[in-house]
Request: fold
Amino acid sequence: MARPVRVPPDHILTAAATEFAACGFAGARVDRIARRAGVNKAMLYYHFGSKKSLYREILRRTFADAAARLRAVSAAGETPAAHVDRAIAVLAEVAHERPYFPAIMLREIAEGGAHLDARTLAALAEVPRAFAPIVAHGTATGAFRPLHPFAAYFTMFAPVVLFIAAEPIRRELSAGGLLTLSALTPDAFVRHAQECVRRAFAADAPPAARRRAPGRAGDHAKPAVNGTTRSLTSQGRG
Reply:
């Protein structure tokens, strides 16, 4: 009997991730994963043991990578605002490199984390923990207002994941002429999210800085709005 052709485990993981994103954990089928990967089921079970183990390995690797990248951001000698900008970009990069991840994660959230064991939950916890020092540094230096580090993390994480997961819906809305979204690229959204989070985290200006500069009666200070935010807000009004 011919021995099955061996393939790298990463190849199987990629095929499985596509299946889980499309069908959810319950709907995913091992035989379809094996066909996607070009292996037989025996080889899949040899590497991962079960569908559940395969699913959890995908999530653990994603969480571990995201946590490692956030720790690198925290260790970089930058301003708190620059740390936040880079952290948002990092999460967008992780989701972009793994287009299956937002869909899998949203399904898992909807199902109450039913398929996450203790090891996978521990890997997940490392992601907000890796972000917490960024918040602590910003608060300690006075750049940020007092923030709960995990509330700050969810403020940053959720919009990015939701935006990327909604890409097929945005495409349909645009194709049907229901919304004009051509300018709302992933990069534009990341810039928008960065500005929103920086403003949300920022410490209140001291009273002296809030006083209106002398000028003509009736003058009012106008908030600075950059080109990206102006474009996105004008689309939102449309």
Observations:
- Residues 213-238 have pLDDT under 50 and may be disordered.
- The chain has two domains: 1-49, 51-205+225-237.
- The CA atoms of residues 107 and 131 lie 23 Å apart.
- Residues 51-205+225-237 form a domain with the Tetracycline Repressor; domain 2 fold (CATH 1.10.357.10).
